[in-house]
Amino acid sequence: MTVGRLEDDFSKNEIAKRCEAALHLADAVGVFPTPLDHILDRAGAGQIVDIGDIPQKVKLAKPKLLKRLLGAVIYRESTVFVDLAQRGSRALWTKGHETTHFILPWHEASAIHLDDNERLFGDSAEQLEIEANYGAAQLIFQGHRAMQEALDYRHGLAVPLMLAERTGASIHASIRYYVEHHPDPMALATTGRRRSGEHLPIYLLTHSASWPQQFSRPDQVFGQQQLKVKSGPFAELLSAPKNGDDIRIADKRLRDLRGDLRPIAIETFDNHYNKFFLIRMRGRVELGRRLQAVTKLA
Amino acid sequence: MTKLGKLLAKERERKGWTLREAEAETGIHNAHLSQLEKGHIAKPNQPMLWTLADAYGLDYAELLRMAGHTTSASEAQSKRQLAGALLRGLEDLDEDDQVELLAQLEELRRNKRAQE
Lengths: 298, 116
What we know:
The complex is a heterodimer of chains A (about 300) and B (about 120). Chain A has 14 helices and 10 strands. By secondary structure, chain A is an alpha+beta fold. Chain A has 2 domains: about 130 residues, Arc Repressor Mutant, subunit A (Orthogonal Bundle); about 150 residues, irre protein (Beta-Lactamase). In chain A, strand 8 and strand 9 form a beta hairpin. Chain B has about 120 residues and is mostly helical. Chain B has 2 domains: about 70 residues, 434 Repressor (Amino-terminal Domain) (Orthogonal Bundle); about 45 residues. Chain B has 7 helices and no strands. The interface between A and B is medium-sized, with 34 and 33 residues.
């Protein structure tokens, strides 16, 4: 299960190119958190309306249709709606998603985009929604810029936790961005927190571009829909001691596609909504260029 | 060759571009362009269609329709336009009218559900 992942390179490049142009137009390159209001303004959005600004009387009478609505774009009126009453990182993601709808010219053929929880944070299979989420990450993490900063640190889950603070993105989005953009082989399983018997439900499996060149598909490593945590490597990991960032790490070996056993580290982190299980390569020497900062994190 | 493929080939030739020149103009690989023209790609994605419409000076909506994107898009769009009208209504009306409008819409929705 790899949900909501944009696979074709042409679309990725087109979206990245247009997001980059929007960042430049707004003089926002390298500014974190990305000033999305300014980007929208420079892109020609006449109005950014907070859906939460609807008067209390109206809110009480709000039909279900509007209750579900977290973001919207109406092109004819150059208006972007965002529910800013959401938690900060969710509001930022919603704004990034709607900004992408607004700046990608082929999205305008739909005239209006109305986005609910599923389109923004779920596993929507609609192409334009997948593109808008890809663009949101491009804008919030500024393409590879956040990754370039991340690569200064020793690899592991502590790094996207820092990225989340720096960019304003959610921990969930930051970990996913980190794994999908990392040059080294990495695989990630995001699960629920409540066990069903011996397992945790898997919500998302994803990996870096170089993972499939060296290892089996993530579902063959973690499981297709359920992660076994009663016994085996993930059970051992969950009973390993936590470090200062509440990250647990276990050293293991994983057979690669050539049949060789390779040293890996499995890490897990719980953000009170999900559990994240990361597999990364274990090097003989693991030094980041800013070891001091990592020491502080860890 | 599909209708879309024929049109794309004709417009590229009208521009006097080889497949490689079209690749240089659009960023779409010449082998992919060739497959599009021969109709070997059943439903080209929207960023690609928009790029081709832009490069050849074609109507994007027409390319969308020819590529088979329109049906689902138009159904979804009519629902979205309805909801969009609701949003616009909320912006333009005063508070009492907004409450009234929403109450009426909710009533309509209930009636519709009762009929079903």
